Amino acid sequence: MGILHQLKQFAFVKLRILKYKSLSSCKQVSGQPKLYHPLLLNGKGKISFGENVQIGVVNSPNYYSHYSYFEARSLESEIIIGNNVYINNHCTIEALSKITIQDNVLIGINCSILDNDGHSLEKDDRLFGTPKSAEIVIEKNVFIGDNVTVLKGVIIGENSVVGNGSVVTKSVPSNAIVAGNPAQIIKEIK
Q1: How far is residue 100's CA from residue 120's CA, in Å, rounded to a whole number?
Q2: For the chain, does the N or the C end have fewer beta carbons within 10 angstroms?
Q3: Does the active-site annotation cover 119?
Q4: Strand order in the sheet with 68-72
Q5: Rounded to two decimals, what is the model's pTM?
Q6: What confidence score (pLDDT) does residue 58 get?
Q7: Which residues are within 8 A (CB) of 44 and not within 5 positions of it... i.e. 6 or more apart?
């Protein structure tokens, strides 16, 4: 690959990163992640990044075509991302209450971390009601594979691994490997 081609690729991605930064509406952002992939930050709440947080991976799918989306929806909403966290391309983190991702966490491609139902589950309140929400905590040194969904109220314990394509509906103990829909413990890490 020639130098000119590499420069064109770099310029293309840099422009997309700047575009999504300018489209972001969240005003309460602290910390500065290393962006290798466009990131849209929306909502009225707080989003904080620790030291050495990386969003996007150059040599992974969705690098040129997608963006990541973080939303702290209401004034009370909060997304806290610790130190040394690496989040791959095209991830969604949506907080109505609070989502905490502690230090040294790896998150794969196309993951969704959602602390709420998105809409009320009651049929008469679905359009205008308030969805249920419960805090999510992803503890230190967790590895989340590709295409994983983590739902409201979940705590993923320290050192655990979540297999590709899993839907995590219940809390995961420390030092466990889980996989499936819904995710189940398949092995303990010793």
Answers
A1: 23
A2: C
A3: yes
A4: 39-42, 68-72, 92-95, 112-114, 149-150, 167-168
A5: 0.93
A6: 86
A7: 26, 27, 28, 72, 73, 74, 75, 77
Q: Which residues contact 145 (CB under 8 A, 6 or more apart)?
A: 108, 161, 162, 163, 164, 165, 166
| Band (5; pLDDT cuts 50, 70, 90) | low
124-137 confidence digits (pLDDT tens) = 788 887 888 999 99
The span from the first CA to the last CA of the chain, in angstroms, equals: 44
Question: What does each C-alpha distance from 175 to 10, 105, 106, 160, 181 come to in angstroms?
Answer: 39, 14, 15, 5, 19
For residue range 65-112, what is the model confidence (pLDDT) as tens digits? Answer: 899 999 999 999 999 999 999 999 999 999 999 999 999 999 999 999
Q: Which of 83, 86, 94 is nearest to 45 (CA)?
A: 94
Q: Which residues, 6 or more positions from 36, have their beta carbon under 8 angstroms from its beta carbon? A: 13, 54, 55, 56, 57, 58, 63
Catalytic residue among 5, 66, 90, 119: 119
Strand 184-188 relative to strand 176-179: parallel, antiparallel, unpaired? Answer: antiparallel
Residue 113 DSSP code:
E
Tokens 């709420």, residue located: 116
